[in-house]
Amino acid sequence: MSLPITSLVRTNIQNIKPYASARSEFSGNASIFLDANENSLGSPITKDYSRYPDPMQWELKKAIAQVKGVHIENQFIGNGSDEIIDILIRVFCEPYKDNFLVFPPTFDLYEIWGKINAVEARKVSLLPDFQLDMENIPKAIDTNTKIIFLCSPNNPTGNCLHREDIEFILNNFEGIVVVDEAYINFATQHSFIKELEEYPNLIVLQTLSKAWGLAGLRVGIAFASQEIIHYLNIVKPPYNMSDAAIQLGIEAMAQVDVVNQRIAQLVSYRKQLEEALLPLKIVQKIFPSDANFILIKFEEADRVYRMLLERGIVVRSRSQVPLCENTLRITVGTKKENQQLVQALSEINTLI
Ligand SMILES: *Cc1c(COP(=O)(O)O)cnc(C)c1O
User: Fold this and answer.
1) Residue 206 phi, psi (nearest 5)
2) Which protein residues are within 6 Å of ligand 1, measured from CB?
3) SS3 assignment, position 149
4) How far is CA 107 from CA 182, 209, 220, 255, in A?
5) CB 157 within 8 A of CB 130
6) What does the alpha-carbon distance between residue 278 and residue 281 come to, in Å, rounded to a whole number?
7) Which of 105, 196, 230, 239 falls between 20 and 30 A from 221, CA-CA?
8) Is this prediction's pTM over 0.85?
9) Of 230, 166, 221, which Cα lies nearest the Cα of 199?
10) 3-state class (DSSP) for residue 283
11) Strands 176-180 and 202-207
């Protein structure tokens, strides 16, 4: 069981009232808005962006609710999930005092935001099969451990964490449990957004950057209890989402069928890639992936990386990451890009 949410929030944050924007201060009907120092003559470009956006992004949340089946009151929208990770640390972790847990090899940004906020990212390495080390996690937790960041499917390893392990942590940890589901749409395991009512300490992070193909738009979503959402709203910049991102996000939500087709397509490309690369002798291991990328172990990953680059192909080296020695993380591309990748690696295979 988790502690009451308010008792987990930093004391200085607990009593802050959210910034009251000009427009949120009036009620009733009005047709002339001279309250926000916007430019009355409009924008110098075709589309008009002269008005401040809705600080709560209600229209986008309604569109997301239709697709995800999560009530608008249980949503928080951030300028990418990157922004949300920072806000979470700032809401719950006292600088120079509190800590949070991460499980490397994983997404680096949790730790970086921790450093920026002077909050310790306490690490418990994943096991060699990239699953949680359930025996050693309790030893890392103390009374100042406020958040546990679980990344599932995990970046850069590609696998989902065992669901029973995540559930065990949700049931036994007293603090906040974040499940980062940036890649969940490519996975066979289902999302934790259906479990929000069961776990008041659960925060599910999703994003439009991966399956939705909108990384440039910067839309991340946190799904959580209303109480948690309340505190995230206190800390966020008042207009953290631009009107352009809000409007295009709404447009995207209407295209869920197209998105689902593309997810299926990318998953089938991923399988094709795995099958094409497995026979190469330079490939030592292809780790099973539930994401839109594959982690591959090579005999000499750095050399393969350079030889791919010579052929104009950039992949992500994870060679220096403990447990990922000699690996490259390769995003699933278009059919043509994948063919070129396979051809390049086949060529490299004959040269090494
Ligand atoms: C890509 C990614 C994100 C998404 O970040 P955005 O800021 O929403 O683009 C979040 N978490 C993980 C693990 C990722 O790999």
Assistant:
1) -130, 175
2) 80-82, 107, 151, 155, 180, 182, 207, 209-210, 215, 220
3) strand
4) 11, 15, 15, 28
5) yes
6) 8
7) 105
8) yes
9) 166
10) strand
11) parallel
